[in-house]
UniProtKB/TrEMBL annotation:
Keywords: ATP-binding, Cell membrane, Kinase, Membrane, Nucleotide-binding, Phosphoprotein, Transferase, Transmembrane, Transmembrane helix, Two-component regulatory system. Signal peptide: none annotated. Residues 41-258 form the Histidine kinase domain. It catalyses: ATP + protein L-histidine = ADP + protein N-phospho-L-histidine. The chain holds residues 222 to 479 of 479 of the full protein. This is histidine kinase. It is found in: Cell membrane. It is a multi-pass membrane protein. Residues 1-33 form the HAMP domain. It comes from the Bacteria.
Length: 258
């Protein structure tokens, strides 16, 4: 597109129009590049599990004299690749819905304390599986006007990561408090941490600091971009503090509107 830019050599009103035009072309060009990158990433992410499934099933078909254990092992691998495909597609559909639903949030007055308690009870078993001490601290009663289901998903995605990226026996602490005109949901872990140079990228679609680790834990690379989009739709932000080997703290900041 960029060759369609207008050359500006005047100093009058035409100059302003031409400059605005050039900025618009540049933005269109960026959107186009992002779209192409996204399609390329989706194709790659879907192809990886499909390739594994193909190799595993071909080996089963062509192999002779496999014993039952080998069949079971290969089929278990195929089964987990199918789960992976399913997770990616579910997350992609969520992103598509969020794009479409920009103006149709189902906003309702929500007692955030209850919401967090519900999330806590839901994720406790997941934490217990890794002997992670999941703690919930609720000091203040906070009401917000939010889309209950969506905010729940954003919070769950971040807690789910905190559990995923924290070693067995670690700790994840959830807190809810007021700070000026914002309600803060704080999710603090003492896990592997995020290198400083990667923090700015973690909300991008399909970005992972360590692809292998994310894959092993069933990650799709879309959880944080979904959370970011949901919180942005509520005019909120997500901030991160992290140190490798020490842990990470995510702050979901939501405006208090009455
Ligand atoms: P994934 O499905 O890979 O977890 P996300 O979008 O949820 O994708 O997160 C993107 C990346 O950010 C992860 O792959 C991981 O590298 C990093 N990350 C997110 N949360 C944490 C955390 N609590 N501790 C360490 N790394 C994290």
């Amino acid at each position: 597109h960029l060759e369609e830019k207008v050359n500006i050599d005047s100093n009058d009103e035409f100059k302003e129009v031409a400059e605005a035009f050039n900025i618009m072309i540049l933005k269109l060009d960026q959107v186009d590049t992002q779209r192409k990158d996204f399609v390329a990433n989706v194709s790659h992410e879907l192809r990886t599990p499909l390739t594994s499934i193909k190799i595993l099933s071909e080996s089963l078909i062509s192999g002779e004299d496999f014993n039952v254990d080998v069949y079971k092992e290969f089929l278990t691998d195929i089964d987990s690749e199918v789960d992976r495909l399913n997770n990616i597609i579910t997350d992609l559909l969520t992103l598509v819905d969020l794009d479409k639903e920009k103006l149709t949030l189902d906003l309702k007055i929500t007692y955030m304390n209850f919401l967090l308690e519900r999330i806590y009870l839901r994720l406790k078993p997941l934490a217990e599986k890794k002997s992670i001490d999941l703690e919930l601290v609720l000091n203040e009663k906070i009401q917000l006007k939010v889309d209950n289901e969506k905010i729940q998903q954003a919070i769950i995605n971040i807690i789910d990561n905190a559990i995923k990226y924290t070693q067995t026996g670690g700790k994840v602490k959830l807190k809810l408090y007021n700070e000026g005109k914002y309600a803060i949901i704080e999710i603090k872990d003492n896990g592997i941490g995020i290198p400083e140079e990667n923090i700015q990228n973690i909300f991008e679609r399909f970005y992972r600091v360590d692809k292998a680790r994310s894959r092993d834990t069933g990650g799709t690379g879309l959880g944080l971009s979904i959370a970011w989009q949901i919180v942005s739709l509520h005019q909120g932000t997500i901030e991160v503090e992290s140190k490798v080997g020490v842990g990470s703290t995510f702050y979901i900041k939501l405006p208090i509107t009455t």
